[in-house]
Amino acid sequence: MVGSPHEAMHRIFQHDPGVFARAVRALGLPFLDPTEVALLPTDLTETRPLERRVDTLLRITTAHGAFLLLVEAQGKVDHLEPAAWAYYLSHLYAKYRLPPVLLIVCQDQKTARWARRPPAIGAPFRRSLIVHPIVLGPHNVPAVTDPRIAASDIPLAALSAVTHANEPDIDAILNALARALHGFDEDQSIFAELTEMGLGTSPAAKTWRKLMSVDLSFFRSESSQRLRAEGRVEGQVEGVCESILRVLERRGVGVSAPARDRIEACDDRDTLYHWLDRALVVDDTDELFRA
Prior knowledge:
Blueprint: H1 4-15, H2 18-25, E1 36-39, E2 56-62, E3 65-74, H3 81-96, E4 100-106, H4 109-116, E5 121-123, E6 126-129, E7 134-136, H5 147-152, H6 154-163, H7 170-181, H8 186-199, H9 203-215, H10 222-250, H11 257-265, H12 269-279, H13 285-289
Parallel strand pairs: 3-4, 4-7
Antiparallel strand pairs: 1-2, 2-3, 5-6
């Protein structure tokens, strides 16, 4: 089931696409800061009954030209994923005629090691396609434990917290981020929300909620409540719709055009969460919609 850590790992890049270049430059990859960014549709479904959805897709323009940034949040080792990544890259290149860059974001060392070396596609004696992603995780995202450094780049500090959610240094990272966020306006408070999402059900989530209740007055302020009301209602509805469709896809349950329209048109969270629970067990969409 797609959960809140999965959503946070890629949505950080939607709220500040420039964090991609800042994060990977430390790896020696010379990506420039964006001069323009466009959020593109994540639905890569073909006209035939095959549905593919990326997590986040951005067209980023720099002084050297434009490229597509495809961000996939990977919570565990899944040997079916590399084939999907290859499909995404070839489809996007054919559709947009821009170089696609695949970024995999992980929260544990094992998944990151696996993602860095996806298997080549083809016969053993002749590989036809090699997928070479950039992988960000606890192994290479800096542990931002200095509040001054966190304050200078809050999105990167939030990414540090999300990717180190299960690492020993997470408490120091969360303390630095909480102190950095103190006093910032509501434009930055979305990263407090994304950090909470990214920590999921890990023990660090309790630490973060405590830090928010003690240190950040804006987290309980009227503006924060508005952000929750607007962002969570709208964002969660969209996110849950995507999750329902993604779960059905992964389970091999076909989704007709009318069923997709019904799911995407629904704006009632309780109904959507009910459908999400049923998506884990149903064999067809008729069962999904039954009371």
